[in-house]
Each structure stands twice: as C-alpha cells, then as structure tokens.
Specification:
Helices cover about 35% and strands about 10% of the residues. The protein has about 290 residues and is an alpha/beta fold. The protein has one domain: HAD superfamily/HAD-like (Rossmann fold), CATH 3.40.50.1000. Strands 5-4-1-6-7 form a five-stranded parallel sheet, sandwiched between helices. α2 packs across α3 and α3 runs parallel beside α6. It starts with a helix and ends in a 13-residue tail after the last helix.
Length: about 290
C-alpha cells in the first residue's frame, strides 16, 4: 500500500508534542534520538520482520500451487458483498491469477523511507512521493521471500498481477522498479493496475473487479487490509472496529487461505490510534506507590 495524506496527518497530530530530530547529512552516523525510529529498525533491520515476510510469501506460493488446477472460487469479494457478509464467485474457465499490492508487499521503498527518516518523519508529501515513483527504481529492495514466492507461483502456471496505488503516470517507472529486483513481466493494463487505470481515486475494489473479470483470482497479498477489500479502510470505522472486522468469523478462514498479509510497521490505517483505542479502561495497570 501507499501511505495516504489523511493517515499521515493523523499520525503527525498525535506526535505533535514530540521533539523532532533534525535531518542529518547523508552518509553520517549518529547515536541517541537521531537514530531511525523503532518502526524502521524493526521493518528494515530485524530478522523477525524478514522471517514473517518470507513465511507469508512462501505460504502463499504453497497455497497457490495446491489450487492452480481443479474447481475453485475467486477470493475477490463479489460486488455488493462485504467482509462481514462475503460472497465469492466460481472461477469458471477463467485462467488463474494472484494479485499483489506493490509497496511494502513486493518492494521495500528503502530510498524513500531513508528520506523520510532523516527528515524526522514529516507528514506525507504527495509531490515528494510522485518524484520517488518516477525516479526511485534503483533504490528499492525486494521484500524477503517475494522473489522465490512469485517464481514458484509462475512455475505453477498462475499469472501474477499487481494492483497498486502508485499513479498510472508512473507505470513504466513502476515496472522498472519491479524489474530492478528481478521481478519482470509487469505490463500496464494487463498485469499492472495503478491508481486511475479503472476508476478515479485510490479505492482498489474497482481494479480488483476488473482483474477478476479477466482472471480467476485465487490468492491476494498485501500489507494493508484495504489490499483485500476497501471496506476495511472505511473512514467511519474506529480503530477497535477495524481490528474486529479483520477478525470477523465471516472471513477469518481466508487469512492464510487465499488472503496473505505481509507485515508493515512503517505506515497504515492504524497510525491514528490513541490511548483509548489501544488500552481498554479495564485493562490499564499502574503500580502502587511504596510497594
């Protein structure tokens, strides 16, 4: 997924009282508060994040290989259905495909994340991100496990399709970024769908529906719940309600069984969560003084 302005602005508001470290010159090292934030250290430096990503990508490849032939139904929600009341269509004779989000699902935007980290995590800048989309192809890395996963899926005869909120104006640059890490074959309008290709705006449901008319989508991967259904990103949902919807019994069986979530601690719809969202009143603890 791509960080949206509204989510980043919410996160910035929560941290307004924090001291923002000044940017440092490229190539320098520092200690203390000017080091990258915890989210960068976990996402880009921890073995745990790498293992979780690899685990998810290879689990998806195994699932796809097992469902590449024979009767199947799509894992794209049918029109008019929701995660709380899902419906799915049979595949029929359509060729099988999988759908991947790109940013922090297939590609780590290491160059752009460096730029954000050294500037103290300012609010999302659409103009700066557009510049990155057009010129950052050589500063990305593959998410751990994705290259092996995609190779196995293609070897099973299943088409790989990308659905990203990068802008359609950056189609060739996006294909180049994927190719730079060894993932070739992203063809705009065929196996690469970007914001503006099917409908205006960042909603992915219209693109998923368009892809699903050409192919039977048997698996999807993303780092944000909205990579599976736009309903998860409904702005009317509170943080607890969104978390509950993600675990709803109606779709619980899809996780790891058609829907595969890739860890991303860098940004997401959770950024606006406050104390009341994270710590229920009946679960708060403070030690008693003098004990």
């Amino acid at each position: 997924m791509i960080r949206t302005l509204s989510l980043a602005a919410a996160a910035a508001a929560l941290s307004a009282c924090a001291v923002t470290p000044p940017p440092r010159a490229a190539g320098t090292t520092t200690s203390g508060p000017e080091q990258p934030g915890r989210q960068y250290r976990w996402q880009l430096g921890s073995g745990e994040a790498a293992v979780l990503s690899r685990q998810a990508h290879l689990a998806m490849a195994s699932f796809v290989a097992a469902h590449a032939k024979g009767p199947a139904s799509s894992v794209v929600l049918a029109a008019g259905s929701t995660p709380a009341a899902p419906r799915f269509a049979d595949c029929g004779n359509r060729p099988r495909a999988v759908v991947y989000d790109i940013d922090e699902t297939v590609l780590l935007n290491t160059g752009a994340n460096y730029d954000s980290a050294v500037r103290g995590d300012p609010p999302f800048d659409p103009a700066r991100w557009s510049q990155w989309e057009q010129g950052g192809a050589e500063k990305v890395e593959a998410v751990p496990g994705v290259i092996d996963g995609i190779a196995a899926i293609r070897a099973a005869g299943v088409t790989v399709v990308f659905n990203s909120n990068r802008d359609r104006a950056a189609a060739s640059a996006t294909a180049a970024a994927l190719a730079s890490v060894g993932i070739a074959g992203a063809v705009p309008g065929e196996t690469l769908f970007l914001k503006g290709d099917v409908a205006p705006g960042s909603a992915k449901d219209p693109r998923r529906a368009a892809i699903n008319t050409r192919y039977c989508v048997i698996a999807m991967a993303g780092d944000n719940l909205g990579d599976f259904a736009d309903a998860f990103n409904d702005k009317a949902l509170t943080t607890p309600a969104r978390r509950a919807l993600a675990q709803d019994a109606a779709t619980a069986s899809l996780w790891g069984n058609g829907w595969f979530l890739i860890p991303n601690a860098l940004y997401g719809a959770w950024e606006g969560a406050g104390f009341d969202d994270l710590f229920p009143a009946d679960k708060r603890w403070t030690p008693k003084e003098g004990e």
